[in-house]
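In full, the data:

***
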Amino acid sequence: MSDSHESEPIRIDTTAAHSARVYDYWLGGTTNFAADRAAGDAVLAARPGLRYSVQANRAFLVRVVQWLAADMGVRQFLDIGTGIPSKNNTHEVAQAVNPATQVVYVDNDPIVLAHAHELLKSTPEGATDYINGDLRDTEKLLRGASRTLDFSQPVGILLLGVMHHIPDEHDPYGIVAQLVAAAASGSYLVISHPASDLLPDTQGEASKRYNQHVATGQRLRSREEVARFFDGLELVEPGLVQWHQWRAGDGSPDGAITGHSGVARVP
């Protein structure tokens, strides 16, 4: 486990809500505290359909990893903003397709680190690693990931529900460009991002409540702003769509609203 400081005690502040634990609460998990549930409930009161959106984002993860592993032959994944382990973690989905798949997880929440052992149960043929680090320290992240991943070969870069935690002043587009620049031709960039333009009346209030209650704030973005993350890349079908729609067949309920997502190939 890279940069995990296993000899040091893991300090978790249970009095302040954190994004990973609030997300876990919305998913129906149990790795959360009273502050996380209170924050989650405050946001849900402004947007009752948010639980569906969160669950659909997890389903999007499963579909896209299966597609990359089975159809595109991707054997390496860099999952940034991993969150608290749940069902169908990236290595479980990918290694079910090919047991030799290698996966590196990245997150900066101490409670995710505390549960990282669940992410390190690799098949004998494959490998998994966990980096306790911040996406904004991109060079350090890539150095740590290179201990497990071969960046001269294609890699699936997963940024699901994480880029909205990077405010404009921290150069989110530059961060993504740096990750893409390190990846070989034939790699894939996957992004899901909460939208500012799909539910303008309720989303603004929900976002306001989130930023009031959760230590890690969020910056929602429009479809046009999310599209910028894919500049210079080859968006695959069906393009930039809501994440519950991406290759979902008939599994999407009418009237559902989630957020913007896309998958693009590095040329």
Q: What stands out?
A: The longest strand covers residues 188-194. Residues 31 and 142 are 28 Å apart (CA to CA).
